[in-house]
Structure formats: structure tokens, C-alpha cells
């Protein structure tokens, strides 16, 4: 199933603000976990810490919420689970990857569609700067709304540019060194 993807603020700014406020304590817990645990750990460590953070803030959350899917009126035996079902109406999908990709978004969207949960948060703990994307699914109009993406595409483009400049410069230094030129001594080194 495909959804139109649109920014909720463009269509219903009041609902976008309400949803942002509704998710405020949840994303706050995620940020605390990221700040205290740091980047580059595995997903399960972040989930364990997030479960503790929810308990400390008295937020109702079910970890590894299992659900079944029906096909042609029959239940499929394989069970799926979402990382967290929070406040009985919000899914949190935790990731610990270099960057969020379309496969991560699609996984969350499928979980939202199959469980009929309208609010979903995709949270990536692994990078130095955490990434968060929040979605609202309108079943009537078949539209997936983004209502507060924290990952900034311009920032990612800047880091990509910075990395490419660094790689080019490193290649230039390596070629000079391989040719026998030693820039820090201004002498030709022996081979």
C-alpha cells in the first residue's frame, strides 16, 4: 500500500502543533537516552535504556508489542512486533544505524497501517546527532503526514560535502607522500 507523503504543517498547522506537544515527553525520553548513553551502541541497549526512562517518567509503554496480521480472513502465524507501543496510540521504532533510510520509514509505516495506530516516531540513536522523524497516518485520506522531522537534510548535505573535501585532500597528501615529497619538512625524503 502506498501513501501520499505530505507535511502536516502545510495542511493543518494546529494539528501539527498538538501532535508535537503530545509527543514532547516521549521524544524527551529518547533525547535523554541518546545524551546519556552516547552514540554507536547497538539498538537493544538503547531500547533497554528507553524502557527505564519511560518507567522513570511514568509513561505507559509496552516494549516489543506483538501483533498479528490477517490475510483473506485467516490469521498469519508469524507474529510481528513494534519496539514500543506508547500511550496505547503511538508506535516508536528505534534504530541504531548510520542514517535513516527509506526501508526504516517503510517499516514504521507498515506497522502503523497494520496496527491502525495513527502516530509513529522513528528514532535513530546511533549517530552523534540523533535523528527523529514523526508521522501521522490519516486512514480516511490515505495520506502519511510528516509533522516534525528532526533530521535536517541540509545538515546531512553539508557533512557529505565536508567529507568529500576531506577525502580529496587526504588523497592529495597521500599522492605527494608517495611521490617522495614531504610537505612538513620541505625536503625530498629518500625512497
List keywords for this structure.
191 residues, seven-stranded mixed β-sheet, disordered C terminus, globular, 6 helices, 43% helix, alpha+beta, two-stranded antiparallel ribbon
Explain this structure:
The chain has 191 residues and is of the alpha+beta class. It has helices at 8-11, 13-22, 24-37, 43-56, 102-115, 153-178, and strands at residues 4-7, 61-67, 70-71, 74-75, 80-86, 90-95, 119-124, 131-138, 143-146, 181-182, 187-188. The strands form three sheets. A seven-stranded mixed sheet has the order 1-9-8-7-6-5-2, with helices on both faces. α3 crosses α4 (43-56). It is globular and about 50 Å long.
Look at the helices and sheets and give the structural class: alpha+beta
Give the topology string: H per helix, E per strand: EHHHHEEEEEHEEEHEE
Instruction: Give the biggest sheet.
Output: 7 strands, mixed
Strand order of the largest sheet: 1-9-8-7-6-5-2
How many E-type strands? 11
- Indicate the multimeric state: single chain
Range of helix content: 40-55%
Could you tell me the strand content as a percent range?
A: 25-35%
Mean pLDDT: 84
Number of helices: 6
Instruction: Note poorly predicted spans.
Output: 150-159, 183-189
Termini gap: 63 Å
What would the principal axes of the Cα set say about the shape? globular
Amino acid at each position: 500500500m502506498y501513501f501520499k507523503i505530505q507535511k502536516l504543517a502545510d495542511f493543518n498547522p494546529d494539528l501539527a502543533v498538538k501532535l508535537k506537544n503530545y509527543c514532547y515527553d516521549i521524544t524527551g525520553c529518547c533525547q535523554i537516552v541518546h545524551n546519556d548513553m552516547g552514540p554507536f551502541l547497538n539498538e537493544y541497549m538503547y531500547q533497554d535504556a528507553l524502557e527505564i526512562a519511560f518507567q522513570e517518567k511514568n509513561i505507559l509503554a509496552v516494549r516489543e508489542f506483538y501483533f498479528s496480521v490477517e490475510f483473506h480472513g485467516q490469521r498469519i502465524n508469524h507474529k510481528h512486533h513494534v519496539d514500543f507501543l506508547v500511550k496505547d496510540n503511538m508506535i516508536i521504532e528505534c534504530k541504531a544505524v548510520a542514517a535513516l533510510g527509506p526501508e526504516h520509514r517503510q517499516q514504521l509505516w507498515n506497522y502503523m497501517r497494520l496496527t491502525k495506530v495513527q502516530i509513529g516516531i522513528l528514532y535513530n540513536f546511533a549517530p552523534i546527532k540523533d535523528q527523529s522523524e514523526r508521522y501521522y497516518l490519516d486512514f480516511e485520506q490515505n495520506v502519511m503526514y510528516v509533522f516534525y522531522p528532526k533530521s535536517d537534510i541540509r545538515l546531512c548535505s553539508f557533512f557529505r560535502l565536508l567529507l568529500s573535501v576531506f577525502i580529496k585532500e587526504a588523497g592529495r597528501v597521500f599522492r605527494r607522500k608517495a611521490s617522495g615529497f614531504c610537505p612538513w619538512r620541505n625536503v625530498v625524503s629518500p625512497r
